[in-house]
Design a protein that fits this description.
The protein has 724 residues and is mainly beta. It contains 6 helices and 35 strands.
């Protein structure tokens, strides 16, 4: 920790000294170069609004050499766990891209965001208190891309090489053409990367002091081309139509090797080795046709979106397991899976002022249909051997998931006495779903409706002091594949399956924030839920099986956070620092589920973003980022605190519109995860070492006019962030 803080402090001090010296020197600088830098520096890097924190990254040093996934990891309030799940303030989130809900989650979201160049980012909004407009289970992360609409052709091409355990390459291009009322944007990318991950597990859930220890090292290779097209036509000053097409493809190969050891009462029982070869291929196609009506004078907006999303995923895993004393019970087993996801949706949103009262009403709704199918099959000689541990496994099955989720919402916003901003909203969602297996014949049908209210209040004592209060009720629904009960083996010697009995998890959140001098913010949050579902481990026919399980019991989470965003040296040095304290009361949750875990969890976490623009007036941009984070998830507790860090240097050549950047990732300490998961019959501990470290070099060539335009929003959305 001290080793990391010292160079960052030294870097900050050096920047301040360098700028002072540069001010004394009479350096001749091209006027256009100064103008370009000044435009970037005017907007704060981080803005704290009533219901969201906005990370303005457009044209900043942090985007150089990074993908959107990389920048998302460095966004204030955001963390990513070892399962690649994105969280805000420690809670699961719903990710939107340009106000459109992403169809990806977990590792699929990671791979998709890695295909979007960070150079295309305008900002990332972390919406901790979303309005009723959003279909969300908690907080929302909205990734906003740039919109260029100057005449002619413009764009960029970038080449990136990253060295961690293995070498990876990444390239992308952006093309934008605007002619009078028509705008066409094309974004393409190709990545070819090799990644290494190490895992160790300690399973102590057995009787007779039996312990299973496993070490795994996996090398994964991914090839991911992608292409997206956005066409927009302005019919007149008030009417726009457009079409978005997205294609993403991923081909992956991985090889994993594990070694396991079984002991009983401290004595060796068996030693085994296992290898796993995995081949996978997936493709995703998304379409979105939209119509937008915007009357600027009357501040009326109508948005209509209709679209489809399709994802196909094929995987073939071949496992070879051998033991010293029970080799005849081992053998080869192949797992074939085919996953087909189909989504269809229609969404309508309308906003307008309400009478002469100064209020704004927003109404809308969405209906979507999902039809997903997962086919699983096993092959290999070991499944026919009655002495094999793979004997009696289900050979094949076809899992179906269908649902219809419809929602209606209304928000009303108004400012009283020029000091009190208010927003009250209600959202109603109705879910009707059906899951079934063809061979096993298991089936479940269910439906339910729920009201999700929210409230926002902000009182400004003066231009420099304000206080805000928000309340949100939300519901987290299981991901469709978490229902699939087909049992498959994993490389660490365990098995995994879904759970047909999973239930949704509602929760309530209360959020209080104080703003001081427009630079300092102190916030407190309270979250409450009476049920949840998390990964658990059970023993079935002598096998260790991981699955998502329902957990009843009250959980209360408390959170205090202090944040400041400062600009120094004529806005060239920007510093954003946030630090928080988390306290979780799991006592009732643990007692009802007979978990031997801690009843109370207390830990610290925070992040810092430092950027410096135009060092020595030589168009050199520097940035540094650091995060301190724990990973506590329900019945899974962190045994370590991670310190992530990233330092980058970018040299800009304005006349040729070229950039060259170098990035150092976690060079002082490689991040890892160490978590213990508690179940009714013992604990399962897992240690993971990530491949997110090393150095990367990026070259960028731009052409055309790079001026960026903000997406049009209503006054309510601009001032309080209460809308989209």
């Amino acid at each position: 920790m001290k080793v990391l803080l010292f160079p960052i402090a030294l870097l900050t001090g050096s920047l301040a000294l360098a700028q002072t010296q540069a001010a004394k020197d009479t350096v001749k600088t091209n006027a256009k170069e100064i103008e370009g830098v000044t435009i970037v520096a005017r907007k704060p890097t981080v803005e704290s609004k009533v219901d969201r924190t906005v990370f303005n990254v457009a044209n900043s040093a942090i985007v150089a050499g990074n993908t959107t996934w990389d920048v998302l990891r460095m966004t204030p309030l955001v963390s990513v766990d070892n399962n690649d799940d994105v969280k805000a303030e420690g809670q699961m989130v719903t990710v939107y891209i340009n106000d459109r809900k992403s169809v990806f989650t977990g590792k699929e979201l990671k791979e998709y965001l890695k295909t979007i160049p960070a150079d295309n980012l305008l900002k990332i909004e972390v919406i901790t208190s979303p309005s009723s407009r959003y279909e969300t289970s908690g907080s929302v992360i909205n990734i906003v891309l740039k919109k260029r609409d100057d005449e002619g052709m413009k764009g960029s091409i970038s080449l990136n090489n990253r060295q961690s355990t293995k070498n990876s390459q990444y390239t992308n291009f952006n093309l934008n053409y605007h002619k009078k009322k028509f705008t066409q944007t094309l974004i393409g990318s190709y990545s070819n990367g090799t990644y290494v991950q190490k895992n160790e597990t300690l399973d102590t859930r057995y009787k007779n002091n039996r312990i299973n220890t496993t070490s795994v090292e996996t090398e994964m290779r991914n090839e991911s081309p992608s292409l997206s097209s956005t066409s927009e036509f302005e019919i007149n000053d008030k009417n726009n139509i457009g079409l978005v097409l997205e294609y993403y493809q991923n081909r992956n190969l991985s090889f994993g090797e594990s070694g396991g050891k079984l002991t009983e009462d401290g004595k060796p029982d068996d030693i085994y080795n296992q290898t796993q070869n995995t081949w996978g291929f997936s493709r995703t196609l998304g379409t979105n046709a939209f119509y937008k009506y915007y009357d600027k004078e009357k501040n009326r907006i109508l948005d209509v979106n209709i679209g489809t999303n399709y994802t196909g995923n094929d995987n073939d895993n071949l496992i070879d397991k051998r033991g010293t004393s029970i080799a005849d019970k081992m053998g080869q087993l192949g797992v074939l899976s085919n996953n087909q996801m189909r989504n269809y949706y229609l969404k309508v949103d309308y906003t307008q002022p309400l009478g002469k009262s100064g209020g704004t009403i927003e109404v809308g709704g969405k209906t979507e249909f999902n039809n997903h199918v997962i086919s699983n099959g096993l092959y290999g000689t070991s499944i026919n051997d009655p002495l094999s541990e793979y004997f009696n496994l289900a050979r094949n099955d076809r899992f179906h998931y269908e649902d219809n989720l419809s929602s209606l919402y209304a928000n009303y916003s108004k400012t009283f006495f020029k000091k009190l901003e208010t927003r009250i909203g209600i959202r109603y969602e109705y879910m009707d779903f059906k899951v079934r297996q063809d061979v096993a014949g298991t089936e479940r049908k269910d439906s339910y409706g729920t009201f999700l209210p929210n409230l926002l209040l902000k009182y400004s004592f003066s231009d420099k002091y304000d206080v805000s209060l928000t309340y949100n009720r939300s519901i987290w629904r299981p991901w469709y594949s978490e229902f699939n009960p087909f049992l498959v083996p994993d490389i660490n010697g365990t098995y995994s399956r879904g759970n047909l009995s999973l239930n949704p998890n509602p929760n309530d959140r209360l959020y209080l924030k104080f703003g001081i001098l427009k630079k300092y913010f102190i916030s407190a949050r309270y979250m409450h839920t009476n049920q949840d579902y998390w990964t658990t481990y059970v023993t079935e026919n002598g096998r260790t099986v991981s699955l998502p399980g329902n957990f009843d019991g009250k959980v209360e989470k408390y959170y205090l956070f202090a944040n400041t965003n400062q600009n120094f040296l004529k806005n060239k040095l920007n510093v954003n620092v946030g630090f928080g304290w988390y306290y979780i009361n799991n006592k009732d949750f643990n007692e009802k589920n007979q978990l031997g875990a801690k009843d109370y969890i207390s830990y610290w976490g925070g992040s810092a973003n430092i950027s410096y623009t135009n060092l020595f007036n030589k168009n050199i941009n520097l940035s540094a980022w650091m995060e301190i984070a724990n990973q506590n998830n329900g019945n899974s507790y962190a045994n370590n605190t991670n310190v992530f860090h990233n330092i980058s240097v970018t040299k800009i050549f304005p006349k040729t519109q070229m950039e060259l950047s170098m990035q150092l990732m976690n060079i002082f300490k490689r991040p890892y995860a160490d978590n213990t998961t508690y179940s009714q019959d013992g604990t399962f501990r897992e240690y993971s070492k990530w491949d997110w470290y090393g150095v990367s070099l990026t070259f960028v060539k731009r052409f055309g006019n790079q001026k960026v335009k903000e997406n049009t929003k209503t006054d309510v959305e601009k001032n309080s962030g209460g809308g989209k």
